[in-house]
Amino acid sequence: MAEPEKLSQDGQGLPAGAEKSADPVEPAAQNDDIEVGKILRHADKNDADEALKVIQGVEGETIVLTPEEEKRLLRKIDWNMMPLLCLVYGLNYLDKTTVSYASIMGLKRLPLAKWSAVNVIMWGLILACMAGTKDFATAMTVRVFLGVFEAAVSPGFALFTSQWYTIREQGSRTGIWFSFNGWGQILGGFVAYGIAVGTRAHPVAIKSWQLLFLVIGLFTSAIGVVFLFVMPDSQLNARFLTPHERVLAVERIRVNQQGVGNKHFKWYQFKEALTDPMVWGLAFYSLVANIPNGGITNYFSQLIVSFGFTPEQSLLLGTPGGAIEIIALVLCGWLGDRYRNRLLIGTWGLLLSILGILLIAFLPKSMPVGRLIGFYFTQASPTPFVALLSLISTNVAGWTKKTTVGAIYFISYCVGNIIGPQAFQDKDKPDYRPAQITIIVCWCLGLLDMLFIYFWCRRENARKARVRAEPGYRKIDGQEFYDLTDRENPEFVYSL
Questions:
Q1: Mean pLDDT per 10-residue run, the chain (496 residues)?
Q2: Is 15 helix (H, G, I), strand (E, B) or coil?
Q3: Which residue ranges traverse the bilayer (predicted)?
Q4: Structural domains in the chain plus CATH codes
């Protein structure tokens, strides 16, 4: 095994002469396929993470963050960041379930399609435009544009979480804001029920499902305006923090070995993302897990009706499923951080969901309550997806690589959600037996994939430990903020 190159330092944590030459320094050694020398090649102050600017601004000072000060700072970050993240994410899910509610209020058969884009305000306005659709073609067109503007939410929030929170905090925070899917389901059920009953008693000029889209869409746009003016890009321009607190907020995430972002696109990081087996493990799970999600999210109201309940009853009976999702996500997120094992703890919700779909598939029709309970169990299925989403924040370093992995993850998410509704065919009503079988197979494949990711991360941690144990290995000062990838940084340890 080759010995890693000894690093001479000039007081800045850079290899000697790194600032004097623009030419990259070639790696001197390689241990397995972890190239330690890449630190030398990419440890360039002029192309480092933006967090380095904050640290350099107080160069010469000793930054001391006491436990009391860190708790106070964390509370301040939570109260200023989490409410908006939670509210917007709840609306993100409420949009998708609005299609399900509308399907039993008179609007039929809309496949789910989501594509990448950036603007919550436009997403709300496009959602409101659903009220004006007249047929499948116009509805499909609006849904495509809706997906374009809605797609920014999940990958953007994953980046926010990695910027602001430490490794030990990211799982629980991701679980909290993602759990507002459940709150969206609960709120959406009551809103849809109120509109359905209210418009029947007091008819209005438009249909009930049209009014539903207008109410939720315009409210989403209003929240988007608030989000636009309140949410900071990073610690560097957070108005709710003092200049000193911005320094502390950056310093406290040094343990992540990542930083807060680098706006330069780096081809080597892009290529590394495409050749990393862990990344494709994440993408595969996102695909197979969201085939069931795409179907259940759009058709859960019709599924409940198939158990023997009325359409209006299904609007209310779907709301407890949201509570199950909230409890499962928050509990698994908290336990995953506490016991430092998000992957295995996250699989609990998937196992409960597999039990739920088995109850739906194999309980006799004479037991509608048992099948309804099975549906509630399936609402715990997002726990592995959220665990992996939080691991994109934690286990993928290098800004270009992280954004690339986020894109791959959510492209897979979109494809799964596009495929999912196709399993729910009208000819299979009321039981949707092919859809049930599809869901069982997908979740079992997802379970195996979670185990692959778990053992891959353990293997990589063991290899990096061998690198750090080599004679002559030395850590570069400040390398946490040099925008290194997780694979090229020997100090980077994957969370499980």
A1: 36 35 37 45 54 56 74 88 80 53 41 33 67 72 67 70 80 82 74 75 73 78 78 79 82 69 78 93 92 72 78 77 86 88 91 92 88 89 88 84 85 81 77 85 94 94 89 73 82 87
A2: strand
A3: 114-132, 144-165, 177-199, 211-231, 315-336, 343-363, 369-392, 404-424, 436-457
A4: 67-481 (1.20.1250.20)
